[in-house]
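so i finally got all the pieces together for this one. its three components total, 366 residues if u count the protein bits. some of the lines might not be protein, just check the labels. i wanna see the whole assembly predicted at once instead of chain by chain like last time, that was a mess tbh
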Amino acid sequence: ENLFFEPHKRGLMKTPLKESTAANRVLAEIQPDFGPLTTPTKPKEISPGEPWTPTANLKMLISAVSPEIRNRDQKRGLFDNRNGLPEAKDCLHEHLSGDEYEKSQPSRKEKSLGLLCHKFLARYPNYPNPAVNNDICLDEVAEELNVERRRIYDIVNVLESLHMVSRLAKNRYTWHGRHNLNQTLGTLKSVGEENKYAEQIMMIKKKEYEQEFDFSKSYSIEDPLIKANPSQNGHSDMCFVELPGVEFRAAKIRRLYDIANVLSSLDLIKKVHVTEERGRKPAFKWTGPEISPNTSGTYLFSFIHCFWCFICGNVYSFALTDPLPHLLFISSAEASQNSAPFPSKMAQLAAICKMQLEEQSSEPRK
DNA sequence: TCCTCCCGCCATATT
DNA sequence: AATATGGCGGGAGGA
């Protein structure tokens, strides 16, 4: 039985998501040739210093052959965080009081997606040798990290948007690391600019601000701020401003936290706090490399873009709450010192308008 | 109090 | 039908 799946032809890659349909188009455009991706039958090579586990293939075989064992192990593994001896620990737990038992459980923080993502990333080199097999088996990773596969998807989906991995087959991804990260970010940046995400968000902020003076209006599905912004450049597919009302945003926000965790683990963004009139506010600032936009006519839609739009257009940080992903229009210098006082909203709006005008006048119309 | 986001159900997509 | 994928939101830990 061939457990390594049939040789993969890149051109035949299925694109399971509407979203990644576009994403893969760009992927195909910008992805450098990583050499023969069609060598899955080759046994895993372990280059020196690389964190591939030597027993990976064996483990995969075992888990493929025996799902019951895998499940059992996974449950035991809850207490087996790489210390081994699950039996002994289970034994131990039987004699613990409820309170003690609770304490012995991993804390919520220990189970965070950010930490998991760090563990995930630690398994692979930043700049893998494209000549060797860089396959990732999701099942295997989930098992080794003692998490449900669902969590691995959380990570891999973001990495895929950044083209740090690409889908190879069912349950399999190829690890690219940061080889083409800057290029991807450049593409994302230009897409963000093409779609005027930053301007759209400024628009939302403006509406939000205006709404503060009108208490008779409240957010609803028929949120005026959504309707009131027919896209100015002719594109009807401006994903951001077409979002429905506050319920949707609240639901969105949880996803953004997930994504923020992964991006933080990649050191692309960093959590900061800024002070507004109403108090401290959590925000993120871009800590990744400086990116120059690539020219690209292709549209991409993903949360990554929503993030990216915060980054382009001189918007350096944003908060995820209150009540929608909330931009903080502060300079990068301000963002770097958390204690900087936050300018009044009026001042912000003035700055935004000025910025917009400058942009429009300096940049020739496309 | 409210930011954060784990967890896993379950709908949908793929094989 | 079986399995893979991932949308989604309840509700709880933590600051």
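Residues 14, 16-17, 108, 111-113, 148, 150-151, 170, 253-254, 257-258, 261, 282, 320-321 of chain A lie near DNA strand B (CB under 10 Å from a C1').
Chain A has a mean pLDDT of 58.
anyway lmk what u think
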